[in-house]
Design a protein that fits this description.
This protein is α/β, with parallel strands linked by helices and 565 residues long. It contains eight helices and 42 strands. The radius of gyration is 30 Å and the shape is globular.
């Protein structure tokens, strides 16, 4: 075993690097591989630099540093300054901005909250700010007084206004098909209705799928000076053409050119997607890669891949497979990944349940029944609610917030929640943790072999080969300890480089079990109590940047919850 370990250490040690902060500078150290090990690749290093939000100086060439180190022109492990380390705002007073419309009929304030114990806004300061921007009439004193005592952050608040004209209503494009092509969400119960999935709605070739509505003229008004303010008539809407559509000869209607699925995009463009209906994905179809939307009526066999540029609907449960969609993924049943299956979505993901699976969504993740021992990552929210609404085990990461009925398990199952932080930084941390774990396994093997030789040396004199092996093991032990220490320093640096935004929260409606961790970044960690806590609980970061638990959702966070609905 010792001989085999030594051969592995001498022939397969990959190159490595350190990316650290020293005196406000971003410093990199490069280490060469040994034996048949793989050298550091410039792409790996640049990805780490970008993830940590570091901008290298123009004179720095990462490829040249790697090459010079590899060829011996630059000493291995030498520190190289590549740029400034991103600075974190520690203390900042509230900042108010005045916005006056073009006709000077309304004035609004947008107040950014203080950070790190900074000062809130004052009535006197807001009054002076309005005067400095020429707002001296129509000031709403009661509104300003309210902002001075109970500031409203990150929202435009009208603080002065005149008598504005009523503009004409703009013309618009009226779709003649169901545009909300996702399962319905009950706003009160947050329940996902998987029966009401209109993604399968299709249009025939030659069918009218949208029409143009004309604008109105509006009503005249006046300014606070008495000047008559003529009304602006509404604008004429124009069709935004996507694929497979055309405008009627009179310009009033939009017509489908093919039989397929009509889609209204977020930018107003209307297209008709080709839709493929598949009974199964298995050896009869092979892996599927389709430039449109895919609907699978029955199953996706284990080990197969489904990739679509549009949305994907799966009408039965799926297991150990790989599902990737440019838009939404909708599972009418559930996802049993058994530790290997993965779903990736460029939009939202909807499912009844997820068990031992990995789900990654650029948008939000909605689950009605339960998430069991799974890894959920969403740029938006993670909502497990409507049925049981359980999150038990695994790790949940959400850029905005997490909402569920029950968090954790009755058997004190370890459950980790990361909320309000940049997913890219989380990826860097996961990579470093995995590297530490791998090196520690090798380090333990070295210790076992070295201890065996040390025990033998106490009883007898080692022969020449054994003595040489022991010397190499001692050197390897020192080297791997240094590598683990290096990774630990990088992990600490990464963990101290991010923190949650001020509207991040975890909302537990019914029960919070023991052994639950909620991480808001930068040392802001919450651990659930040793006894199960019943009732509604909101875990969030207060204005003092400390983690707190309360039965009600702060107003500014509630607004974000309503927006998500």
């Amino acid at each position: 075993m010792t001989r085999k370990l030594m051969e592995e250490l001498e022939s397969s040690q990959n190159g490595s690097f350190e990316l650290l902060e020293e005196n406000g500078k971003a410093v990199i150290k490069i280490f060469n591989p040994t034996g048949k090990g793989r050298p550091v690749h410039p792409t790996d290093l640049m990805n780490r630099i970008r993830s940590m939000k570091i901008v290298p100086e123009k004179t720095v060439s990462i490829e040249r540093l790697i090459k010079n180190t590899s060829e011996g022109r630059t000493p291995e492990g030498e520190a190289h300054i590549i740029g400034e380390w991103p600075k974190l705002i520690i203390r900042k007073n509230a900042v108010a901005e005045v916005q006056v419309d073009a006709e000077q009929m309304t004035a609004q304030l947008f107040i950014e909250p203080p950070e790190g114990g900074g000062k809130p806004p004052t009535v006197e300061g807001l009054q002076q700010l309005l005067k400095d921007h020429g707002v001296i009439k129509g000031v709403m004193a009661d509104v300003l007084a309210g902002l001075g005592t109970k500031p409203v952050y990150n929202r435009l608040i009208t603080v002065a206004k005149g008598k504005a004209p009523i503009a004409g209503e703009n013309g618009y494009i009226r779709p003649l098909f169901e545009t909300f092509n996702k399962p319905r969400i009950d706003k009160k119960a947050q329940k996902v209705d998987f029966k009401d999935v209109n993604l399968i709605r299709s249009a025939k070739a030659g069918e009218v799928i949208a029409e143009k509505v004309d604008p109105t003229l509006g009503e005249a008004g006046y300014a606070v000076s008495g000047r008559i303010m003529p009304a602006e008539p509404g604008t004429i809407a124009e069709f935004q053409l996507g694929a497979n559509v055309e405008i009627s000869p009179d310009g009033k209607q939009l017509i489908s050119k093919i039989e397929g699925r009509p889609v209204l995009e977020s930018n107003g463009k209307i297209r008709v997607d080709e839709v493929v209906y598949l009974k199964n994905i298995d050896y009869s179809t092979g892996n599927v890669d389709f430039p449109g939307s895919v609907i699978v009526e029955q199953s996706v066999a284990d080990g197969f891949r489904l990739n679509a540029s549009g949305s994907i609907i799966l009408q039965s449960s799926v297991g150990v497979c790989e599902i990737t969609a440019g838009k939404d993924v909708i599972l009418s049943a559930g996802f049993m990944g058994r530790g290997e299956g993965k779903i990736t979505s460029g939009g939202d993901v909807y499912a009844r349940f997820v068990e031992q699976g990995t789900v990654v969504a650029k948008g939000s993740i909605f689950i009605s029944e339960a998430s069991l021992h799974s890894r959920l990552t969403a740029g938006g929210a993670v909502v497990v609610k409507g049925g049981r609404g359980d999150i038990t085990g695994g790790e949940v990461s959400a850029g905005k917030y997490v909402q569920c009925n029950k968090l954790g398990g009755a058997g004190e199952t370890k459950t980790v929640v990361v909320v309000g932080v940049d997913p890219e930084i989380r990826t860097v941390i996961d990579e470093i943790v995995a590297a530490i774990r791998e090196k520690e396994i090798t380090l333990e093997k070295i210790r076992v072999s070295l201890n065996r030789l040390n025990d033998a040396m106490k009883k007898r004199q080692l022969d020449a080969k054994e003595a040489e092996t022991r010397e190499k093991l001692v050197m390897a032990l020192r080297k791997y300890k240094a590598l683990v220490d290096s990774d630990q320093r990088q992990l600490e640096t990464a963990q101290n480089s991010y923190s949650a935004h001020d509207r991040a929260f975890v909302l537990v409606e019914a029960q919070l079990y023991p052994n639950v961790e909620v991480n808001f970044g930068k040392g802001m960690l919450y651990r659930s109590p040793l006894r199960t806590a019943a009732g509604r609980q909101v875990i969030h970061v207060g204005e003092d940047r400390l983690v707190s638990v309360s039965p009600t959702l702060p107003r500014h966070m509630q607004a974000m919850l309503e927006e998500a609905k």
